[in-house]
């Protein structure tokens, strides 16, 4: 069985900061990984590396390099404006996502949880758009969007450094990433415009930083997953799919 993972996020850099180790791990195992990005992050800070009007293209190039480091197979931009995802055409966004889900047919989709990890409005919006698309993708509607597809597993990446230990221990998937920590670091470094975020991270407690490069955390949506689960392998039991 060919393994497919679909990542749906809001900005270039979300993938590297949030789950770079997990991406690198599964890419090394032969999983085909497709990344969908809602915006090009053009409303962020240029960090003196380019003109503000050039930032979208600059960040697209940063993501291209980071994707190569992590082993991402394909990057798809939805082309919405940074910081305006919640007020973008919702039905249009959902249609685009349904088409992608039906085409890729991933065993696993990963996106932000309802809190958006950092609370960013674009992060929270892409969570809800993704859930809507997963629900629609399995229905016998709009055949020109592709054949209906029932998603085996939906997971939300959780920001470990923001959560208490008892909450972390209760999450569904804890992925060990130490062997891929260097790739995660290299991918983050490719996002040079995110200097401020990198500096904030360096100021954190050493224990938090060690955990950040050792484990990544995920919550499984048991309602929208045909084959929900828990454990140390986000692809565990996928052999049941289609059986």
From TrEMBL:
GO molecular function: hydrolase activity, acting on carbon-nitrogen (but not peptide) bonds, in linear amides
Gene3D superfamilies the UniProt entry points to: LmbE-like (3.40.50.10320)
InterPro entries: GlcNAc_PI_deacetylase-related (IPR003737), LmbE-like_dom_sf (IPR024078)
UniProt-listed SUPFAM superfamilies: LmbE-like
Protein name: Putative LmbE-like protein
């Amino acid at each position: 069985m060919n393994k497919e993972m679909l990542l749906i996020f809001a900005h270039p850099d979300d993938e590297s900061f949030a789950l770079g180790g997990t991406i690198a791990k599964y890419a090394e195992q032969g999983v085909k990984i497709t990344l969908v990005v809602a915006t090009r992050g053009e409303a962020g800070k240029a960090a003196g590396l380019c003109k503000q009007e050039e930032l979208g293209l600059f960040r697209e190039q940063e993501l291209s390099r980071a994707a190569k480091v992590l082993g991402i197979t394909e990057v798809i931009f939805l082309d919405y404006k940074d910081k305006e995802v919640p007020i973008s055409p919702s039905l249009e966004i959902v249609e685009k996502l349904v088409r992608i889900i039906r085409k890729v047919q991933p065993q696993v989709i990963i996106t932000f949880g309802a809190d958006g990890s950092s609370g960013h409005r674009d992060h929270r919006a892409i969570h809800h758009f993704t859930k809507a698309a997963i629900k629609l993708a399995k229905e016998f509607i709009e055949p020109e969007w592709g054949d209906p597809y029932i998603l085996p597993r939906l997971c939300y990446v959780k920001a470990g450094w923001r959560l208490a230990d008892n909450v972390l221990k209760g999450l569904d998937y804890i992925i060990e990433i130490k062997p891929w920590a260097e790739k995660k670091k290299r991918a983050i470094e490719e996002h040079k415009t995110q200097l401020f975020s990198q500096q904030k991270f360096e100021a954190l407690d050493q224990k938090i930083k060690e955990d950040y490069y050792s484990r990544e955390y995920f919550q499984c949506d048991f309602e929208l997953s045909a084959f929900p689960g828990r454990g140390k392998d986000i692809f565990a039991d996928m052999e049941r799919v289609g059986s």
